[in-house]
User: What shape does this take?
Amino acid sequence: MDAVVSASGIEKVYRTGRLTTPVLRGVDLEVARGECLFLVGPSGSGKTTLLSILGCVLSADAGRLTLFGEDVTQLSPKARAAFRLRRIGFVFQRFHLFDRLRAWENVRVVFELLGRRNNTRNDAIELLELVGLKDRVDHRISELSMGQRQRVALARALAADPELILADEPTASLDAETGQSAMRMLKDLCQRLGKSIIVVTHDQRILPLADRVVSLADGRVVDGDPAWRPAIAEPAKASNRELAVCGGMP
Amino acid sequence: MSWFALKTLLCNRGKALTALLGVVFSLVLVDIQGGLYFGLIGKASLLTDRCAADLWIGHRHVENVDFAQTIPVQRINRIRGVPGVAAAEPYIVGNGIATLPDGGYEDVWVIGADPESLLGAPQSFVAGSADDLRRPDAISFDELDASKLGNPAIGDVIEVNGRRAKVAATTRGLLGFMTTPYLYCTLDTSRRLTGIPGSQCSYFLVRSARGADISELRRTLAAQAPDLDVMTAAEFGRQSQDYFLRRTGIGISFGASTLLGLLVGLSIVGQSLYALALDHLHEYATLKAIGAEDRQIGAVVVVQALAVAAVGSVVGVALILATQQMFSTPIAPILIPHALLLAGVIVVFAICLVSSVLPVIRIRGIDPAIVLQG
Assistant: This one.
């Protein structure tokens, strides 16, 4: 497998005073190029922490993480920031867009961080067109619907042309229909652009879109069967299967 | 990221205006306080500043142009013979007591200038002229000192040290550091009024020949008259100002109030920028999560601070010039040299940069993981 992500023995412990809470207890995970992987599991299972580590936002306490063939385990915070800026795109749970900026300016932020000064408006508009927001480029975020905001977040995630997109509960703020369509667009786009996606979600309705579902429980992978492929055409069946994978998720 | 910084600043108009207020307050305070200081202390060197002499020669250890000791006039002949000296004139700075029509009295400085050249005599007349001063017993004084002398009109006679003096002219802008009026007249009149004999004077005023090196001439004259002090007009002016600075503590007083104002300005700007940063912590965390370096986010705060400093400087300088125009008077002149304006602007930029340190530290401490944790 041409692995974009290769994590082995990832451990993470949160410390609050004398209290230590192990969150990840030796997670092994591989994600192939172009793969759309969903991370599921009950609250507190370590999904978001794992996503943060895979996105180089957090560092693991133990284990080894290789992204795009590069060992990032020992990178300094500064090097990790530079790495994720260029190679990883994020779609955050609440989008975390800059409300006072226009849609295209939200995308421009990434260009600026990359040090690009020229043609940033045109490039930002191009990305917004890609996500179907051609006629909303000059709208402020507060003037957009939640679905449109999600698309802006996706355009921003794609701005640095990263190889990996990490999405944290991308449909949590959307209604069922919008969530489905947004997720479908995210997957289609990434597939078309040859990008890998890791999605953390509780939303059972979108699970059929996954190439593979990995379930976490109590900081461990409890099901990482790469052969598991829910049929998109059979959402009800997939939903049932997802429930089984989640192993008692509420 | 300058545009991002400015948009963030502009969307928080309240905090931006508060920071701006702090900058304007600091700048206006620094420059107006400084202007008042320079205006006031500048009056201590009025006689040297308003005189066309290049060099002043006075009694050994003379500290202040107003407090002269007499020197023998005959020494002037050797000075006149020094190459590079175009002219040397005796000059008198004496004191007296003017008797007022209502029986009161007023201390006065009597300034006597050579009647031919009138070197060291006033130039800016409100009534009368320099020629009028050449008449016997003629004196002039500043129009704002008239009330101290009982408001005498042109042609009126007042008594100085019991001797007759006739008001021939009034001038403008010739108020000294102390409240004592300057009475300008010729050497003869000043001798008669002060009792300084013809063999004595207070200073020799020297004008250098065209192209002469004044520093060199000063050294030559000092060598010729080792028992006298030879100073350039600028040196003597500074020395006269230092005299009051040392003895009155005026510099400490102005400096302390200015420093206090700066601290208030600093705290206003600092508090505003910090509050602005706190309002946007989540956005900074988002930037960090995307991959922004601390340096880039720090630059956002610094750009905001510099923008506040730049706009505040423009508004502040406009306000300072307007204040100077409206409130500067000969009694309380507000003298703002360009260097003071520039220094004030540099100080507010420094204040803004210092104020941005705390928010930058706060932002550096944000964990980008909070964005992913909801």
